[in-house]
Amino acid sequence: MPKFAANLTVLFTELPFLDRFAAARAAGFDAVECQFPYEHEPALIRRRLDDNGLRMVLLNLPAGNWAAGDRGLACDPRRHKDFRNSVHRALEYATLLGVPQLHCLAGVIPPGMDLRRARETYLFNVEYAANLCGPRGIRLLIEPINTVDMPGYFLSRTEQALDIIAACDSSNVFLQSDIYHMHSMGEDVPAMLRRALPHIRHVQLADAPGRHEPGTGVIDFDGVFALLDELGYDGWIGCEYQPLGDTVAGLQWRSGASAAALPAVACLNPAA
Fold it and tell me: What residue stretches are annotated with the Xylose isomerase-like TIM barrel domain (predicted)?
């Protein structure tokens, strides 16, 4: 049965960030993920996890200056120092919080940059991060992100990500598959999940169009969940969608996905 993790960057935004942990537990989640927790001291986050019996299963590396247009640093040869600093900062948080996986955002290709040079830079930086993460028991993940929502993003297709993984001089680079991004890029989601499963260590979801909860768009999530079960995927599925309205009201889709995995609910922003 699917195991769902609440993405606390986009869910429960009716509440301050540190209060979202209790809300996720009240809604039946055993695990959470977060895009960028770096405005909050890791000790405070650790306390919220412990107080609510939650696991943090995924963080992003810092993406640079989001307001200025940064969407990750890994493909930009001008930002080597910034990238390395971002890896060390993420490892500080992951180590204290017990996070088993870090997602390395590729970034937008700089204007005028040769694609081959961007790829070489990305490979070099991914290998650097993966080799630092490995001895700490942390997996490094890469995720294709659609170029409709994020124009110019370097890593946009699953086949491209598989090529990067094959080319990396590291055995600690894996795939983060986001159903919304796959669909938005016109990929055959079931076929690609079958193809990529040996490399997938994390899945995320949102419906399309709109990037809202399952059932608001056209993606067949019943089929996706059944296929993941058939394939033996036993990792987490991150709920990284923007609720159409109240977060808790929007969680009713889970009762159809996995009544055993999560109890029915009775009460109670950035892209990658």
Answer: 21-253
